[in-house]
Amino acid sequence: MSMTQTQPARQEEETLLSLSLRHPPANLEAEQALLGALLTNNRAYDRVSDFLTGAHFANQVNGRIYDAIARRIENGQLADPVTLRAELENSGILNDVGGMVYLAKLLTSMVGIINAGDYGRAIHDAWIRRQLIDIGETVVNSAFGTISDLSGPDQIAAGEEALFRLATEKGQDGGFVVFDRALTDAIKTAELAFRREGHVSGLTSGLRDLDKKTGGLHPSDLMILAGRPAMGKTALATKIAFSAARALMIEAEDKGPGVEPTGTVAIFSLEMSAEQLATRILSEQAEVSGEKIRRGDIGQKEFDRFVRVSRELSRLPLVIDDTPAISLSAMRTRCRRLKRTRGLSLVVVDYLQLMRPSVGTRPESRVLEISMITQGLKAIAKELEVPVIALSQLSRQVESREDKRPMLSDLRESGSIEQDADSVMFVYRDEYYLQQRMPKETAFDSMEKYGAALDDWQRKMSLVHNKAELILEKQRHGPTGVVHLFFEGEFTRFADLDVLHEDPHH
């Protein structure tokens, strides 16, 4: 009886022992065969150079030999046992493996350079598996509470972050970029701008004059779009997001039927629900008042147009997350997941004062909290290589001035908003403030004076009617200035203003 009782326990013990004795995945034969192929014919390096580094090798010596070979080849030099001898002997890399005899062994391990790509992929695959084991061990230990006191959701976010990095990186830690490579990337960007209609190198904003000043929306940039309430921040940000999504869809359609867009536009709407935001876009595109849509006060023609436009919009690569008071860490996790699954081209945040900093952080002040959020948004832009547009409220001090046009000092709880942002834009509509200053008959002692004041007010209103200013107050990569826009309040719609403005500088 006692024998049968101890059998399951013994089996479990044996299973645990066998697990502990398992070796991490490695393919040493492939490593030696690849090195042999490289030493025999340096052209084999072209088959593996775009995805393989010395860090991927399970055997550290093999990895260091690979890096030494790569350095010589990339410098246009020959890499063989003779040319490598001095470097390998001086560095002592081969001391533990028998010296130069080991290189001779590598040459005999070579099967053929035609298989170099297969060897490289086998090495890389084994490295990925080792990384997965490390991540798995960290997740397990963290869950048991042995290495971390993070909450369950935070542990999920940390695990997802590690997996995302593994899925998108090649195993190299950040390092210096050789200048000629950076120069090549710069030339490619310039060529793209030259060939594209409108000379836009980044993603289009849908606003011609804004694209002229900025060159479009660029990867890794954090743009702050600020303004007082009722200026149209959300409407402008929605316009930009919609235009970018439509450009991605058109680009995919041009490649052929059934081709999916290479990226997605993500809107984090912390103030409005996804339904309210969708209604705004529908209202703008179908030219049906949002108020009429909500009341159902539309005719058959308007309804048919509404349905047709909604079908077109449903195909857009546009997603909305309306989680209120979302934390920076949750936003980062969702953006990473989206980039991994569907691609990511633009992130819009409406608006940053409603966000919370990463879970586990306790800023001492509101200014410090906003500073952490803007730094986090800039980090997301850089890490995922996408433009991030964050909307921001302005302080009330704007209202106390005669000229209500915003300035950088008006940024609410500014902290490092101005410092972290690559560009800062303000939305301003003179019509909104002028409307509030309509003359009242009771304020005048004669109808003649009231009539003159009313005429003057109407003249000024006609000059600013349906007009808005986008004040580009800071731009790290280009000029500042004012972009004049058309604004239609009924459909909360921004567009290009095809009116010539007299420029005092010309």
Automatic annotation (TrEMBL):
GO biological process terms held by the UniProt record: DNA replication, synthesis of primer
GO cellular component entries: cytosol; primosome complex
GO molecular function: 5'-3' DNA helicase activity; ATP binding; ATP hydrolysis activity; DNA binding
Gene3D superfamilies assigned: DNAb Helicase, Chain A, P-loop containing nucleotide triphosphate hydrolases
InterPro entries: DNA_heli_DnaB-like_N_sf, DNA_helicase_DnaB, DNA_helicase_DnaB-like_C, DNA_helicase_DnaB-like_N, DNA_helicase_N/primase_C, P-loop_NTPase
Keywords: ATP-binding, DNA replication, DNA-binding, Helicase, Hydrolase, Isomerase, Nucleotide-binding, Primosome
Keyword Kinase part of the UniProt annotation: no
EC annotation from Swiss-Prot or TrEMBL: 5.6.2.3
Alphabetical list of PANTHER family matching this protein: REPLICATIVE DNA HELICASE, REPLICATIVE DNA HELICASE DNAB
Family in the record: Belongs to the helicase family. DnaB subfamily.
Quaternary data: Homohexamer.
Identification of the protein by name: Replicative DNA helicase
Organism: Acetobacter orleanensis
